[in-house]
Specification:
Elements: H1 11-31, H2 34-59, H3 73-104, H4 107-111, H5 117-123, H6 126-146
C-alpha cells in the first residue's frame, strides 16, 4: 500500500517559494558578474548627473507648464523617467525572462516543477519589478538628498 501524498502548501506559500527560488537564481547569477554591478552603479551615477544637467539647462527658462511641479523641471523629469522605467519592465519583463530561459535551456526545467506554469511565469518578472522599484527609490532619494528636489 502506498503512503498518501503530502498535502500541497497553500497558494501564497507556494508562490513565495517559487519567487524565492527565482530571486536566489538571479542573485547567484549576478554574483558571478561583478563588472556588471560596477557598470550598473556607474550607469546610475551618469543618469543622475545627466538628469541634473538637463534639468538645469531646461530650467533656466521660465515655463508655465511646470507650475504643477513648482517650476522645477527636475521633478517632472524624475517622475517621467521612473514611470518609463517601470513601464519598460512591465512590457519587457516577462518576454525577456522567457527568452532568456529558452536560450539557456532552463525553460523546460522551470515548467516541469510541481508549481503551476502560471506561477512560474508570474514569479519570473517579479524580481525585475523589485529591482526597478529599488532603482526608482534610489533615484528619488538621490533627487531629494543630493539635489534637493
Amino acid at each position: 500500500m502506498r503512503a498518501p501524498a503530502p498535502p500541497l502548501p497553500s497558494l501564497p506559500v507556494w508562490f513565495c517559494r517559487t519567487f524565492v527560488g527565482f530571486v536566489r537564481r538571479e542573485l547567484a547569477s549576478m554574483s558571478g558578474y561583478r563588472a556588471a554591478f560596477v557598470t550598473r552603479v556607474a550607469g546610475f551615477v551618469m543618469t543622475v548627473l545627466g538628469m541634473l544637467f538637463f534639468a538645469r539647462f531646461v530650467g533656466a527658462a521660465a515655463n508655465p507648464h511646470m507650475a504643477a511641479y513648482g517650476g522645477n523641471y527636475l521633478g517632472f523629469l524624475a517622475i517621467g523617467y521612473l514611470a518609463t522605467e517601470l513601464q519598460q519592465v512591465g512590457i519587457q519583463g516577462l518576454a525577456r525572462r522567457v527568452r532568456t530561459s529558452q536560450i539557456m535551456g532552463t525553460l523546460e526545467a522551470e515548467l516541469a516543477t510541481p508549481a503551476p506554469a502560471w506561477m512560474v511565469l508570474a514569479a519570473a518578472p517579479l524580481y525585475e519589478f523589485g529591482t526597478a522599484g529599488l532603482r526608482s527609490a534610489a533615484y528619488l532619494w538621490a533627487a531629494t538628498e543630493v539635489v534637493g528636489l
